[in-house]
Amino acid sequence: MNPNVVYFPFGREATIQQFSKQFQQKTALDNERAEQTIIIFGVARGGTTMAARVISSLGIDLGEGDNINYEDERFNLQKLGLNPLKDHDALRSHLLNTIQQRNIEHTNWGWKYPNASVYLPLILNNIRNPRLVCIVRDPLASSSRELRAGVINQNGNEERNLLKSIHALETNIALIHQTEIPTFLCSYEKAIHSPSHFVRSLSRFL
Predict the structure, then answer these.
(1) pLDDT tens for each residue of 117-161
(2) What is the rounded distance in angstroms from the CA atom of residue 10 to the CA atom of residue 169?
């Protein structure tokens, strides 16, 4: 196990006591928490809004305003119209300026963007005490939900969208294990099965 990662659930029949023991063993998580930045990511329609709702309710400002998906549009690639590959410098400059502004406004804050892992490598070293919250969902469930939502045309795209979800999951896991950043790696299915346990575990991590 990566010593910087807290897994939810821990074991087949996890309890809050087991989680607490695991948390205490993660010495890398003992960073000063007076100032921290929470980044919530995963895959599209993969449960990140659920996590963001809980984190917002715990008092972490996500800059979402009236956005029902708890997203700060200043970190949303679609809203920005920027591509991490083609617009590398412009995107990095925008994100760093936004982070600097948010650091001035809030001691503890964060943002939620399902596909954040595509641009996080550009800025991770410039984020104040980052803590990652990655939500993992069954790729078939998340990809089929995207199809049902009408985000993309269903005809002939079922397997393509499934592969896209799997690739996004692999990208997220690779990012987590390439860094030494404290991370809460959570199963969406287990979280909705045991919501009270999930909330208590996440609040302990934060």
Answers:
(1) 999 999 999 999 999 999 998 888 777 765 555 555 555 567 787
(2) 19
